[in-house]
Design brief:
The structure holds two protein chains of two kinds. By secondary structure, chain A is an all-alpha fold. Chain A has 29 helices and six strands. Chain B is α/β, with parallel strands linked by helices. Classes of the chains: A mainly alpha, B alpha/beta. At the A-B interface, helix 12, helix 20, helix 23, helix 27 and helix 29 of A face helix 5, strand 7, helix 7, helix 8 and helix 10 of B.
Amino acid sequence: MRRVDSLAAILAVAGALAVSPALLAQTAGPAAWQNDLTPISAKDWNRDFAAHLLERAGFGGTPAEIDALAKMTPAQAIARLVRYEGTDISHLPPFDESGIRDPGLEPFPPSRPAVTDMAKKNGEALGIKVKPSGNRPLQPIVDEFFYWLRASALETNRVAYWWANRMLTSPRPLQEKMALFWHGHYAVNEPKVRDYRKLLAELQLYENHGTGNFRDLMVAMAEDPGMLTFLDAGVNVKGAPNENFAREIMEMFTMGVGHYTEKDIREAARAFTGWNYVDLKFVVNKDKHDDGEKTFLGKTGRFDGVDIIDIIMQQPVTADYIAGKLYRFFVRENLSPEYQKKLGSVLRDSHYEIAPLLEAMFLSRDFYSPASVGTHIKSPVELAVSTYKKLGLENIPGEPDFNSATAALGQRLFSPPTVAGWAGGRSWITPGLLLERGNFARDVLFPDINFVAPDRVAASEEVRRVADRIREGKDITTATKPDTKGGEMAESNMAADRDEDFNTRYGSFRGSQLALERVKPIPRDTAQLHLAKMVLAENPQNTTQVVDYLIRRFMRVPPSNDVRHELVAFLDRELGTSDISLAKTYLEQPLRLVLHLIMSQPEYQLS
Amino acid sequence: MKLNRRDILKAGLSGLSMTAGTALRVGVFGRAAAAIAAEAESNGKILVVLELSGGNDGLNTLVPYGDDAYYKHRPKIGLPKKTLLPIDDHFGFNRGMVGFERLYKDGKLAIVHGCGYENPSFSHFSSMAYWQTAAPNSGEQYGWVGRLADTIAPDAPPNFIVNIDTHQSLAVRSRRHVPVVFDDPNKFSRESFFDENAVFKATPDNGKVANPAREFLLDTARSAKSASALVQEAWSKYHSPVDYGIVGLDLPKVAALIEAGMPTRLYYTAYRNNAFDTHVFQNDVHQRLLTYASDSVSAFMKDLQRIGRADDVVLMAFSEFGRRVPENVSLGTDHGAANLMFVAGNQVKGGHYGQIPSLAKLDEGDNLLHTTDFRRVYATMISGWLGHRDTRELLNGDFEPFDMFPRKA
């Protein structure tokens, strides 16, 4: 590549820090590489390509991590990331359970009314008996119901922290990136499942089989208790099939809309009847399974759910759909139908093994073409983890709270908004969210002195209000009266307090209190940053070199030259000089301000 | 290429022979279009769209208790007459909907029956996309609210469309406008240090860049800059005594912006995250959802009265589909087809619109057959309410508006 050679030559002459503005941009291959699945050759390989690969197949890297990949051949670098089984991760700690599970919680009823109905009918629920007499005899049961809701949600936040730390520190970054892909693909969420154990089990399934065989993963997911809860599979029974599960398997997980009929959905739903779970185990209730003949996608037989999945895997469109979705996640949004078919063939040829398709994608010229390089809008989780990576951190800070921060940007782990997962791409960005991304950077660089840990406070205003009034010694009825701000009370607020067997608002408060006691706290350390040390190690002479270094280290797409000049002028003002040798002793704060400005640029969102 | 106002007007008239034309012709059409656009732009009418995501069960929202077939289809989850809020001898609102009942009795709520389209999709995502683009079974890439803005305000003044949500809805996707999208008004601001402001104040880059993702981000940055201060100020000044209920949706935020005199004409907001997807044990949860929605909408109307803008605002509520007529064995309902739409506002002539779909004659999948193309209701909003007469091009077909705004005419 002539372009790459000439860049190397200029860099060699000018020295790494004296980059001219035009060369702040990361190099890409020629435009003709677009939609070319041919592998790049060893002589095409360069440090910018290695950095691009690490951004997409992982969560970006420090200069040292990029250098290590740049020294390999492209095939080696890609094998290092994709064929990670040989890379040792035994030093990564397992998830540290709080131990919040009480016996008797299974089967967990679908709603608070269902719990109290069950308690009234059976004299007990959730392993707790109804009080024989006295006021609010169902209250302990309602408390336990809300306890588990809150405890499971809080423990799920701890699982998310554990996972985010793996994204940051695992020597197998693609394993975690693939898990993130599958989590978005299957899109099971905690608010519906309400059991962190099922979500943890799913995450481990994604980590263990994420680059393996898609057919096997699909079968495992169809038999997964979290998924079965999520899509109401338990209520899909012989004689009265519930179509939700069968529909989503086809529409979301394997083929996409338009490749089957409503009749196919009804027939497939019959094949999945009787599939259910007991606690964390998959079961098939034979008496509820419809063993009759079904006709599905042109085939007829006494199919069960696995047969249905196997028939789906025989459809050419399935490989195209999955390959296209992987491509959009790892490479870029725009995908031509022809190129998608090519990628689909790679997946079909490998009998749905994922790793060979990933290798082909990452090795292809297309992956390094200008259409692919620097055109991906980072998801909130990618943004947060890659920010910490590039800062050189060794753990995810407890402040800002990782889950609240990414949720505010539109992506909370274990909480995809709908069964379609996160829409991704441009949908990550709105005017509001773009500003919020800059605010996230500020919270990392300048910890909020008024920070309150979200796992240690009431989950809502209402719970806080009830807690305050109970502490003041108020009775439960008075303590739980809604706050109407003096106006006319809305219907929902009037209706909430009618049943006297228990008090829902008090249960919500009491459950939160019990959860606070039993869920382990998330450590709340702030990011340990040493920007002055990081920058001085490069021995810069002037503010322009400092700004250029930060741009190269943190951005895949540089800002315009005007903005670059603004940044240099800003640093000049903050330091009172453009000569770094005079400013060495007070660099840290001004550097953090410049980095905040850099991370607030529209271009910082790109990878 | 940078479009000037005349180019934009030209493009806006693509239906009229625009093959280069003489300067005179362009001038004539340009003036006509400008006049039409100015009229629509200046009448000050505001449309608020509320999406009830997940497929609201219309039959348990406004219950046809006078029809025995309803109870035959729904022996377990059918709502008995005595629990309803009857509005006539055939229909009663779900008892959670006191607010809607009151709006109806005040003559400010229009109920449109049997809304749907040919060859309905039972997928949330496809059907929602069809409703959001007003283009069923098609791959239209711009939303109908976005196209409406392009048509009535072709020079794309800032802050014309506001979409309150965590992500931009396909409905507001526009060729020319950059919709203002935010969720929490308190967070819709740049937290900067005083010293940094000089850099942040510098106008974001203009003009074309080669990387389309970068260009999109730069456009968004410009919109954020122009809208965030307005929204923040509006929200901080908003102190309403009206109780929007437990959930409130995003309608208090809309009220705040209207009160502050934001130039926005089109608001889009949603009861989010497929909330109405009631496949199992639906009655308790469905009633709760309806109460929240009804509380919020009726509070919004009261709030507009307080603000003094009740005559300028209309709210239209829809869902991507109704639900299956017979209940399922899980005491819930599966995805269905035709459904109700609601239009609320001071200027609305309340009552029933459209033909009530039969509960005896269903499609082969046991769904209501649609009697009203939902685009007729859109056409009613566009022409009857917002005053843009020609809806044909915008909606890709002829859809007869309902006579819903007699006082305005």
